[in-house]
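Predict the structure of DNA polymerase.
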Amino acid sequence: MSEEVNPGSRNGPEVVGVEVLKKSGLNVDTLIDKLVRATAAEFTTYYYYTILRMHLTGLEGEGLKEIAEDARLEDRLHFELMSQRVYELGGNLPKDMREVANISACSDPYLPEGWKDPRSILKVLLEAEQCAIRTWNEVCDMTYGKDPRTYDLAQRILQEEIEHEAWFLELLYNRPSGHFRRSYPGEGPLSRKTRTG
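Done. Here is the predicted structure for DNA polymerase.
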């Protein structure tokens, strides 16, 4: 007869993948907390980017929607990708949606009052990407040499967030970014490669 395990509890059979991380010196509880906050930020960003994208209007704004859409859909992909890892480590996502926004690692990217100027929206998008870069860089620093799976997922997300930042810097400050159209909206060329299911 198999041992019954409560999925919401860390009690139950030994999870070798977690024990190995603890032996490497990684504080798994701290990592789970960081990942839950980071995934909460990705989910809230996805939500707010939906609103921001809708408000990119007029001739100038219409041309920016595709780039905002790529970032929006890739942030949803990041949420889905890392949520799986949270559960593998024995963690949980909040059961209440209101808590997701409260624990987010980044501030909510609200629609600015002067939203009719697309540059004001681009500034909000840029700030959100810069927070995501800092957050995923911290996860990479925390897991480098200790947790290859989380590190691999986080560095793929980090690379895409750096690319998103470059897009918005290009649009705001006329900086070259090397942005190429995605093959399809929300492609996630680095993070999608590791997605399961």
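The helical segments are 16-23, 28-54, 58-88, 97-103, 118-143, 148-173.
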